[in-house]
Amino acid sequence: MTREERVRSLIHYLKNEREGYEAVQEPVDEAGKRRLLRSLMNVRWPGEAAEDFVKMQDELLAEELAERGTVRIEDIPVIRDVYPCKEVRNADRIALWRGDITRIAADAIVNAANSQLLGCFVPCHGCIDNAIHSAAGIQLRNECAKIMEEQGHEEPAGKAKITRGYNLPARYVLHTVGPVVGRQVTERQKEELRSCYLSCLKLAEKKGLQSVAFCCISTGEFHFPNKLAAQIAVDTVDRYLSSSAVERVVFNVFKEEDENIYRKLFQ
After folding, report:
1. C-alpha span between 17 and 34 (Å, rounded)
2. Considering the entire predicted model, what is its pTM?
3. 167-177 per-position pLDDT tens digit
């Protein structure tokens, strides 16, 4: 089966799942079809799918990952080898990398989740929550839904949950909810952001994981100031690593603005 055939079959399966979707028009071009498939996966409510759907989805996502390329954690240079960072005590265990976090083959990557912890339901939204769930496949939302059903309430800011990575190169995903900032950052929100990093690291260490790649928690849709968020992230992680068995932490950034902020901190 070709990629185009897989995409069409997956679209037809998802359209047949819900009444009213038969009216959804399919684009003529292949890029449009792939975007429609992602949209349908984004809005799909948690629930098991047929084995043939999961098999086709996994084959498609594996093929796309192979094209994007996997980034091995050991190939990302630590900041000690790049920056004159005298203030960072664990410069031999911390790295900075700009790019798509869904390409990183770490023990775990960190997802900046919302309090539902089910992923982003906005079709093809640009947030990292959407990107991670789209690359992992529908199994990730299903596992998150089971966790939330057992918990019985929304996920509070500053905590962390762990799931499998499914079609991601990372073995696990650490989901954490950062603080939502209004007009001004409060001391409580600073502590909540610090707690996000600590909760992820503690959970990773509890699971025996050796490498974690962090996204820029709360700096996107939740409007935490980028520079302050980076300062809290570096300080919190550096302090934790001084008495931790975690071997490598990567600060993953997607925007040039964030990359420059971290570079200045390390210089």
Report:
1. 18
2. 0.95
3. 999 999 999 99
